[in-house]
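User: Can you predict the 3D structure for this chain?
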Amino acid sequence: MTRIYGKIANCANDETSIFRKFLILFIIGFFIIFVGIIILMVAAVLSGDSVNFGALIWIIPFFPIVVGAGPEASWMVLFAIILGVLGIIMFLILRREMKKANV
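Assistant: Here is the predicted structure, written as structure tokens:
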């Protein structure tokens, strides 16, 4: 009996370990992307040429925040919105596939 409980405990520890590894990789990836965006924005501003910038900030339960700067900002904002919508569609498709796989 104790062997069975030991195996169950090991499985629970493995799942926790996998979740922690995933969470650490997610946070590292988020910060790398954030730092890259900051570097690109600073480089664009310091270059002195005309700068085009568009961004979509969307925290899922709230409304999206769309910003843009430069002469072609409307196109950049439109591109950001399209990418945001595609991201939501991909999220919903992957979520549905995950539910199918777990059933």
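The first strand starts at residue 53 and ends at 57. The chain has a mean pLDDT of 76.
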